[in-house]
Design brief:
The chain has about 500 residues and is an alpha+beta fold. Helices cover about 40% and strands about 10% of the residues. The N terminus is likely disordered. The chain binds adenosine monophosphate (AMP) and magnesium ion.
Length: about 500
């Protein structure tokens, strides 16, 4: 395995100090990772830098010219203090277990402690082959890099837990997929890159010692309050389950379909990770699937909670030896957590829907009220995002109500539902203005609609025109604000613009 961290670098020169790296994953035993440098590229060019994120990470990039930033974020120049490595992990992909996946095209540069005191990974994606690449080239194409940039940053602006995009760089090299495409590298920032699959890697090798080290590490990093629990591994499972429930509820609240909820794409920290064939629904359809490789609809919109539970069960299996030396004694409490997940999810999802309906406190019939609206949307092909956004102005009779009703094929048919909803609002001590304000913070006007993302990618890939990407990114940075002049970004696709299928980033 190429494990010499000091292998020669094109344009290496003096290592640039950009951050106070404080690496902890590199301190874990050797079987957790393989140390190696990114593979240099011929002509890196900076496409985008996330200056606000860099600032929050305490990075010192202001003085650096774009050429230098391109060298750093392509992997050509390894910054001082970085200890590049590829992480080992396994994973269930579409239900089938792969004992050895790992970072096949990503390299963790290291960690920094950000201005809020949180430890954050800085990782290059598309940075060249590693011992985990199998038959892959270790590279990424520009399209998927831009998609991840747009969607992960839109997620952050929507207030959903997510990895972030720090930089995008083109490499000046081609990558070969179905066609020849421009290559690119994304710099990803995450609370960590520990996945359910990281636990599976060691469980598959019956390496209980490593599992214990990993669990202690993950707990210290993400759930420090649980370390003193009577059975820490059980508390850890519960904590991960809670974050997954909140995460998937958040996704479904904005009509998001992850598309590849494989266990190697499930972050222990509860962040959305891996924006591969992901998509946002336009018209509401619980069976919506976009990914070209998801032929069975395993990861369909409404199936996401069940899959989250399935993935948690795989995590639970790896933790059994840590929960109790007697497997039988470990099984029952672990199973109880998994079985409680649907209830946990449901309560988070209803909370999400309640905010979308402008409801401040729980009521017995809220879930039914919400699902009846979703049923109407489904039956009449209403646009999910726009119908909820219009509802913000429909609390009182008037133009807002008409605008809401016209989102439905048969506007008159929504009147009985509106009457029920208004009666529920009237039962609250808050005013309808209060409700409207709550709803405006829960129902975005702008989401990264698939056709807009594809237009931004097409312009960049075919014409080297990044202005479409920039404009879309700017609109999506304020998703809850009406932005006069940007109404077109809220429009559903025309029939010819509809994206029917999405493809993996590989
Ligand atoms: P993903 O579909 O991105 O979740 O990746 C699944 C696995 O395939 C991970 O182990 C990746 O590192 C690996 N992989 C994906 N694309 C490539 C590539 N172009 N070269 C090498 N490995 C890859
Ligand atoms: Mg992945």
């Amino acid at each position: 395995m190429p494990d010499d961290p000091k292998s020669p670098q094109i344009g290496a020169g003096e290592a640039t100090p950009i951050a106070a790296f404080d690496n902890s994953y590199a301190r874990l035993p050797e079987r957790f990772h393989v140390r190696l440098n990114p593979t240099p590229v011929t002509a890196p060019r900076l496409v985008k830098l996330n200056a606000a994120l860099a600032e929050s990470l305490g990075l010192d990039l202001d003085r650096l010219p774009d050429e230098e930033l391109a060298q750093i974020f392509s992997g050509n120049r390894v910054p001082a203090g970085a200890e590049p490595l590829a992480m080992a992990y396994s994973g269930h992909q579409f239900g089938g277990f792969s004992p050895q996946l790992g970072d096949g095209r990503a390299i963790l540069l290291g960690e920094v402690v950000d201005r809020s005191g949180a430890r954050r990974d800085i990782q290059l994606k598309g940075s060249g082959p590693t011992p985990f690449s199998r038959r892959g080239d270790g590279r990424a194409a520009l399209g998927p890099v831009l998609r991840e940039y747009i969607v992960s940053e839109a997620f952050a602006a929507l207030g959903l837990p997510t990895t972030r995009a720090l930089a995008a760089v083109t490499t000046g090299e081609d990558v070969y997929r179905e066609t020849t495409l421009p290559g690119a590298v994304l710099t990803r920032v995450a609370s960590s890159h520990i996945r359910v699959g990281t636990f599976q890697f060691f469980a598959a090798r019956r390496d209980v010692e490593a599992l214990k080290i990993l669990a202690d590490y993950a707990m210290a990093r993400h759930y420090p309050d649980y370390r003193d629990a009577e059975r820490p591994a059980l508390a850890f499972l519960q904590a991960v389950a809670e974050r997954q429930a909140a995460l998937v509820a958040g996704w479904m609240g904005v009509g998001f379909i992850h598309g590849v909820m494989n266990t190697d794409n499930v972050s222990i920290a509860g962040e959305t990770i891996d924006f591969g064939p992901c998509a946002f629904m336009d018209s509401y359809n619980p069976a919506a699937v976009f990914s070209s490789i998801d032929e069975m609809g395993r990861y369909a919109f409404a199936n996401q909670p069940r899959i989250a539970q399935w993935n948690l069960a795989r995590l639970a299996e790896t933790l059994l030896p840590l929960i109790d030396a007697d497997q039988n004694k470990a099984l029952e409490p672990a199973q109880a957590i998994i079985q409680a997940f649907p209830g946990l999810f449901e309560s988070r999802y209803v909370e999400t829907l309640r905010r979308k309906l402008g409801l401040f406190t729980p009521g017995d019939d809220d879930a039914v009220l919400a699902s009846d609206l979703l049923d109407l949307m489904h039956a009449q092909g209403a646009d999910f995002t726009n119908a909820f956004r219009a509802l913000c102005d429909a609390a009182s009779p008037g133009l807002g109500e008409i605008a809401f009703a016209t989102k439905f094929g048969d506007p008159a048919s929504v009147q009985p539902w509106l009457a029920r909803w208004r009666a529920r609002l009237a039962d609250q001590s808050q005013t309808t203005d209060d409700s409207a304000a709550l709803m405006r913070s829960a129902n975005p006007a702008f989401i990264p609609r698939n056709h807009r993302v594809e237009q931004a990618i097409a312009a960049a890939v075919t014409r080297q025109d990044f202005s479409v990407f920039e404009d879309l990114h700017a609109v999506l940075s304020r998703p809850y604000e009406d932005q006069p002049g940007s109404e077109a970004y809220a429009a559903p696709p025309l029939p010819a613009e509809r994206v029917l299928q999405t493809f993996c980033g590989t």
